Amino acid sequence: MKRARDFANKKGSQEADPSPSSASSSHDLKQCPIDKDELADPSPSSASSSHDLKQCPIDKDELGRSTWNLLHTMSVYYPEKPNEDQKKTVFQFLDALSKTFPCDFCARDLRKDLKKDPPKLDSREEFALWMCQLHNRVNKKIGKDEFDCSKVFERWKDGWKDGSCDY
């Protein structure tokens, strides 16, 4: 989680100075934990042994886990006081996700959920809680345990208090 906090701090400092000179043109690759050679040649033989990559299409479960990790991470790094453009962008992202998600059933279910309970986008805290509650509704539908939403920032932003996420 230290790496995520460092990234967020760097991102925050770049937001303060949005000029092109304040951002490195190759910062995406510098922040990426994947070897640059793997990006150029994604064949199984190019995967480094430290990454243990299958190089195969992901299944529905892995897609779900990855998507939820993205959504929760977006929510806990969402601005504390978002402007109207930021709110609109996130709303449009969620709407687009509900129309393009590769699992048809999941996409339809998300559209229904967004219509019944639109995203709460007035603050980071509100959005993170809304996202956790959405995830818990899905977990309940598919027979999985619910997550304690009071721990959403600890799980997806700050890391567990026992220090197990510090690396």
Automatic annotation (TrEMBL):
GO molecular function: flavin adenine dinucleotide binding; flavin-dependent sulfhydryl oxidase activity
Cofactor(s) the protein needs: FAD
One Pfam family per UniProt: Evr1_Alr
Keyword match Secreted: no
Region ranges (Disordered): 1-58
GO cellular component, one term: mitochondrial intermembrane space
Annotated ranges, domain ERV/ALR sulfhydryl oxidase: 56-156
Cellular compartment(s): Mitochondrion intermembrane space
Reactions accelerated catalytically: 2 R'C(R)SH + O2 = R'C(R)S-S(R)CR' + H2O2
Compositional bias annotation for Basic and acidic residues: 1-14, 27-39
Group of enzyme by EC: oxidoreductase
InterPro entries: ALR/ERV (IPR039799), ERV/ALR_sulphydryl_oxid_sf (IPR036774), ERV/ALR_sulphydryl_oxidase (IPR017905)
Name of the featured protein: Sulfhydryl oxidase
Main location: mitochondrion
Enzyme nomenclature, EC number: 1.8.3.2
UniProtKB keywords: Disulfide bond, FAD, Flavoprotein, Mitochondrion, Oxidoreductase
